[in-house]
């Protein structure tokens, strides 16, 4: 029967085994006290001075835990456990020099060591893949009982359980802090990162800056091309943002098409260069492959890359330098009070006459008697008499309004405009 092999000569079973091993993400990880304890228990049960938890990669043996020796990487060709993983049974020999499987191994011949007793229980995953062993060995010839070998297999089962629990915990932790659609950090992880950035700033470190942004006409993409196209657009936006920011910056998706970037500057300068790069990055349309084409004469049909070209400009960008005194909730609540014109456009910085010309500020009546009031489009005083209980008309503004705005700034003007009609003058 022929055996399927890959281009590099690996069988399909070996490729599946390596894929299962790499999925666990246990290679090259720091030593675990749980695995070290299991290695120590294996040595105690077998009565050997040494026991190791070995994982067999494509070209090497990685020691995930050890007792009685320091863990080290070994070439797979020199590994005794590389032979043991070919079986799902416990491998055992009282004297390796008399066993053809290992008699020529450099760890037996004396080139690297002089191992005699060797016992290895396979690490078998739920899918049947053997990813390594728990092995106990000694430099002396020694017999092990059947009970000892059975307990060694029990320890191997516990090692597999620990590895899978660690993998499950890592996956759950990743899912709890990541957006499932784009893979970006979510609101929870962003809040943690912001807390850390604020704590670093309080210790005199870099100044954090939060950049809020969303996309214009995103709803139209969903309505026109379908939600699949909208999802693809969000993933493309996330990818383009990751290519634009620095490796130390954090991008998070808060909800819908609302994203946020946390960046830090040692000098406390505003992220002007980053904002410029963002504007340039979003000047190029996104070519999508999802969503039915809704053109005349083409009610549906298969989609190909480039069928849908979407211009997704940044509709709202607000860069907020976060002071050390701000708590996380306060920092997050700031965007709710920032509108796009207030954060970005020139009218937010207009002088009082320009603001009057834009008809942005509330009007109120002056005191009784003759008072110089200013027309909306004319800075020259117009002589008029404010009668009792009369207030200035919509196109006029009295000197009290001008003085109040000059004292407290445009923000107060916006607040007053939301507060309702101006109180009439009283006798």
Supply the CATH architecture of the largest domain. 2-Layer Sandwich
Q: What's the helical proportion of residues?
A: 25-40%
Average pLDDT taken over every residue: 74
CATH topology description of the largest domain: Beta-Lactamase
> What count of domains describes the coordinates?
3
What overall form do the CA principal axes indicate?
elongated
Spatial order of the strands forming the largest sheet: 3-2-1-6-5-4
Per DSSP E runs of 2 or more residues, the count of β-strands stands at 15
State the end-to-end distance.
Answer: 108 Å
**Main pleated sheet:** 6 strands, antiparallel
Task: Assign the CATH class of the largest domain.
Answer: Alpha Beta
Q: Could you state the order of secondary-structure elements as H and E?
A: HHEEEHEHEEHHEHHEEHEEEHHHEEEHH
Rounded to the nearest angstrom, the radius of gyration is 35 Å
Our estimate of the beta-strand percent is 15-25%
Please identify the structural class as seen in this structure: alpha+beta
Which consecutive residue ranges, at least 5 long each, have pLDDT under 50? 1-5, 291-309, 311-318, 321-427
Q: Helical element count?
A: 14
């Amino acid at each position: 029967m022929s055996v399927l092999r890959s281009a590099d000569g690996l069988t399909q079973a070996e490729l599946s085994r390596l894929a299962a091993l790499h999925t666990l993400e246990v290679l090259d990880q720091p030593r675990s006290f749980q695995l070290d304890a299991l290695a120590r228990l294996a040595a105690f049960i077998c009565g050997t001075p040494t026991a190791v938890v070995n994982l067999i990669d494509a070209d090497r043996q990685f020691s995930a835990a050890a007792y009685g020796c320091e863990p080290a990487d070994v070439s797979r060709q020199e590994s005794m456990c590389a032979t043991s993983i070919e079986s799902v049974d416990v491998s055992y020999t009282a004297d390796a020099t008399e066993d053809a499987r290992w008699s020529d191994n450099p760890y037996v011949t004396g080139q690297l060591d002089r191992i005699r007793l060797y016992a290895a229980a396979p690490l078998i995953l739920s899918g049947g893949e053997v990813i390594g062993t728990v092995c106990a060995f000694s430099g002396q010839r020694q017999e092990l009982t059947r009970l000892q070998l059975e307990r060694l297999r029990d320890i191997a089962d516990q090692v597999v359980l620990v590895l899978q629990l660690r993998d499950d915990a890592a996956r759950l932790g990743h899912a709890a802090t990541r957006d499932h659609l784009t893979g970006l950090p979510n609101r929870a992880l962003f809040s943690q990162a912001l807390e850390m950035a604020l704590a670093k700033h309080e210790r005199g470190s870099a100044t954090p800056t939060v950049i809020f942004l969303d996309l214009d006409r995103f709803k139209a993409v969903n309505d026109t091309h379908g939600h699949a196209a909208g999802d693809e657009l969000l993933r493309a936006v996330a990818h383009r943002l990751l290519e634009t920011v620095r490796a130390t910056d954090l991008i998070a998706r808060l909800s819908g098409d609302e994203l946020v970037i946390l960046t830090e500057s040692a000098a406390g300068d505003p992220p002007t260069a980053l904002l410029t790069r963002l504007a340039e990055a979003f000047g190029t349309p996104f070519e999508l492959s999802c969503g039915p084409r809704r053109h005349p004469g083409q009610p549906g049909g298969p989609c190909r890359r480039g069928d849908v070209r979407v211009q997704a400009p940044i509709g709202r960008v607000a860069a907020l330098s976060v002071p050390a005194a701000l708590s996380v909730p306060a920092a997050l609540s700031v965007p709710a009070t920032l509108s796009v014109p207030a954060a970005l456009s020139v009218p937010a910085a207009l002088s009082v006459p320009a603001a009057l010309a834009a008809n942005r500020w509330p009007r109120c009546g002056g005191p009784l008697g003759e008072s110089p009031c200013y027309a909306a489009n004319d800075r020259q005083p117009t002589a008029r008499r404010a009668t009792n209980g009369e207030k200035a008309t919509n196109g006029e503004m009295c000197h009290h309004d001008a003085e109040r705005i000059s004292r407290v700034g445009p923000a107060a003007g916006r607040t007053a405009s939301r507060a309702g009609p101006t109180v009439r003058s009283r006798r």
